[in-house]
Write a structure and sequence with these properties.
heterodimer, A: about 170 residues, mainly alpha, Arp2/3 complex 21 kDa subunit ARPC3, globular, B: about 130 residues, alpha+beta, mini-chromosome maintenance (MCM) complex, domain 2, 2 domains, 4-stranded antiparallel β-sheet, 3-stranded antiparallel β-sheet, 3 helices, 7 strands
Amino acid sequence: MTPSTTEIRATGDDVRIARLAAAAIVLSVAEAAIPLPLPGVKPGLANIVILIVLLRWGWRDAVWVALLRVFAGSLLLGQFLAPGFFLSLAGSVASLAVLGLAVHLPRRWFGTVSLSLFAAFAHIGGQLVLARLWLVPHDGVFYLVPVFALAATVFGLVNGLVAGRLMREIT
Amino acid sequence: MWYERLRPWIGLMRPGDYLTLAFALALCLVSAATLWRGGAPDKAVVRAGGQIFAEIGLDRARIIEVPGPLGITRIEIEPGRARVASDPGPRQYCVRQGWLTQSGATAICAPNEISLSLTGGDSAYDSLHY
């Protein structure tokens, strides 16, 4: 094999982000195996990793991990550039934007559960906006909003508690 | 006990988290209440002999009497619902249909040529579709 002329040296940051993204990807691939009644209702286990990255290493790293998760996860599942990929991307972008604001809430009063709930609701919000504009250009999609909201509440709470527990273990 | 095992998890909740959780649950309830209300009627339309006899808002209780070829059909209106209270027809189908509550629901008293139907809200279907 001819040696490459360009040399890319992975910094410590790169390695850390890659490892965290790998954890997030594993969780999203694993949860793709869980049968769920409605498309769009998912536990979103990868968000546990995103929350921990956000709280320990900041928003910039969380953006990297979340977007790597969306791209690599969809490649592994054969969803890349399929509608599901764009929904996932829209949800992630909305959720990262909201997390960027919510992370400035006072930590003493608002823990991981609040962040997780905000992220979960932003996720369904971003997905619904894209679905309404592009995939289902009809107000019928909003008929499912209560179901998505309930799923976001339940999974947001559970993921937030797990993230809080893990934060306590690693600090 | 099982709830003893929940204690470390509850300890992770901070005061603001309860606020956020309450807000999230409220959002679920409000969205269900507003988006799944479809089919709530706001008006009853009474036809006699094919012509519209009366259009009545379903806001307060009242009874109207509609004359037909066989006699008087009495229609009872209550807030949010309506029914044919009595009819001179032989088989009483429209009376036995009872209270109509969904938008699009219709009771037809064919012998007396009178019909009662509810409109308004999101009336995607009428009774015949069921």
